[in-house]
Amino acid sequence: MFQSIRVSAKGGAQALVVGQFKGEGLDAAARRLDADGSLVAASRRPDATGELGVVVESAPAPGAKKAPAERYFIVGLGERGSFAPGSMRTAAASVGRRLAGAKLTSVSFALGSSFDAAKADAEECGAAAGEGLGLLSWDGDRAFKGSATPDPKRGRLTIVADDARFRAGLGEGLALAESANLCRTLSQTPPNIATTSFMAAQARKLARATGLRCTVLEGDALVREKLTGLINVGKASENKPCLIRLEYRPRGKPPARASKPAVLIGKTMTYDTGGLSLKINNGMVGMKRDKDGGCAVLGAMHAIATVVKPRRPVVALLACAENSISDEAYRPDDILTYRNGVSVEVTNTDAEGRLVLADALCWACEKENPAYIVDLATLTGGVVVALGSTFCGMFCEDDKLRGRVEEAAKASGERVWRLPMHDEYRELMKSPVADILNSNPNRKAHPIQGAAFLSYFVEPKVPWCHLDIAGVHVAEKITGPFIEGPTGWGVRLLARLLEDE
Ligand code: BES
Ligand code: MN
Ligand code: ZN
């Protein structure tokens, strides 16, 4: 939408934005800006409903004296009582679309009085607005357009904001959106380009650019380290599996807490054909996005290294493979034994995500001394059936970690809904021939089966949160700041989670 967005404290702007709550007129501050009554008149038009994200445009009469801008936009902020900083994500995105449509290049937000009226923090409002505008400006949907599609001209945008806290928030929000947009661009990259080695190269590039440490385990190293899930799931593909490890170490300031790292794990299936349990009826289309857990973790590491800079170390593990078919493919009936000793009967090669995540979870518990683990995975179609694209399925039996994830969800607008765990679900995963199976052939509680399976690879004392993002990693239509396509779900949530550490 915009080629670049700049934030400025001073200067004139072509467009002025004021807010209007549902069922209310313009407030005194907005009326003071109204040079000739045209703004108030516009706010009384029937289309000025004040509903969140509804934008009404007007302009001062030609030659009006002291008009603060050449165009006015009144943006609906919803009911005053339900306004929260996160509302600004939607409001700013709506305004951004109108600005781009009108080819305007500078805008000034005069919303301080609205934030005050709703008792909302100006900095948090600024951050959400920055996220909204930044997410709106993602252009990765065009990355693979060729010579047959004309290149649209994208304008630059300057946001003039005189309130220092709103401005600080804007800067932070724009930066977080950039991290989320990195994730979205990777998600968008097709599987013939975004291979396992491509993902490893992306991680190395990120590490070089931001001072993270990166190591990639592949080939013999996977065998030495007994990363059996990766080895087997990745066997059939010419694109070889790997475990990508990124590490953030706080610099300059001594880590205040015990230096146990937070560990972030991402399912990074560069393509999921289902393997020999092949996906049918076009169920494969879109499976380039089966790497989105890992893409979100990469995006989060970008934010952690460039914006959040927590005092706690952070380790990222991307379990990266392509689930393909060949005479070398792993099969239903194979039995895999993991480095923690747990044996797994493969009943369905399409339940591959949990097999590679199990490696990363074992590794994290044994080698990283984690303060806690959060994993993100496009794990089950079942969670899409259960929660749609509105909530991510969350499994977390640790009250403290769950509380913190829920807080981060609230701050980022990336909603989570807790699903249950119980020993009966773990029983469902028992196998007659091995310890457990990777998928119970009855269709019961699929998303929970996935989490129950993973729980066999997490040491009981380690706080752990599993996020099944299969419903939320992609949008089917324009929603708030998103277009149809990848949402970068989890990047901003993880950034907020690490924010106070
Ligand atoms: N990657 C899929 C899950 C998925 C489905 C993500 C739809 C996004 C949209 C996963 O590997 C898978 O195939 N899951 C199976 C599990 C089953 C075989 C136990 C599923 O959900 O059907
Ligand atoms: Mn699968
Ligand atoms: Zn998958």
Please describe the structure with a list of short key phrases separated by commas or semicolons.
501 residues; alpha/beta; Leucine Aminopeptidase, subunit E, domain 1; Aminopeptidase; 2 domains; 8-stranded mixed β-sheet; 6-stranded mixed β-sheet; 16 helices; binds ligand BES; binds manganese (II) ion; binds zinc ion
Furnish the topology, listing elements before pairings:
Elements: E1 2-8, E2 15-20, H1 28-32, H2 38-43, E3 55-58, E4 71-76, H3 87-101, E5 106-110, H4 112-117, H5 122-136, E6 155-160, H6 164-188, H7 196-210, E7 213-218, H8 220-224, H9 228-233, E8 242-248, E9 262-272, H10 292-308, E10 314-323, E11 335-337, E12 343-345, H11 353-367, E13 372-377, H12 381-387, E14 392-396, H13 399-412, E15 416-418, H14 423-428, E16 436-437, H15 446-455, E17 464-468, E18 474-475, E19 485-486, H16 491-499
Parallel strand pairs: 1-6, 2-4, 2-5, 5-6, 9-10, 9-13, 12-16, 13-17, 14-15
Antiparallel strand pairs: 3-4, 7-8, 8-10, 11-12, 14-17, 18-19
Bound molecules: ligand BES, manganese (II) ion and zinc ion.
Ligand BES binds at residues 272, 290, 348, 350-353, 378-382, 384, 439, 446, 470.
Which architecture of the largest domain does the CATH hierarchy give at level 2?
3-Layer(aba) Sandwich
Q: From the structure provided, what is the oligomeric state, counting identical versus distinct chains?
A: single chain
The Rg value, from CA coordinates, equals 24 Å
What is the CATH topology descriptor of the largest domain? Aminopeptidase
Return residue spans where pLDDT drops below 50 for at least 5 consecutive residues: none
Strand content: 15-25%
Sheet having the most strands: 8 strands, mixed
DSSP helix count? Answer: 16
- Write the CATH homologous superfamily of the largest domain: Zn peptidases
Strand count: 19
Ligand inventory: ligand BES, manganese (II) ion, zinc ion
Question: CATH first level of the largest domain: which class?
Answer: Alpha Beta
Structural class of the helices, strands and pairings? alpha/beta
Mean pLDDT: 96
Strand order of the largest sheet: 7-8-10-9-13-17-14-15
Query: What's the number of structural domains?
Result: 2
Q: Portion of residues in helices?
A: 25-40%
Give the termini distance in whole angstroms. 34 Å
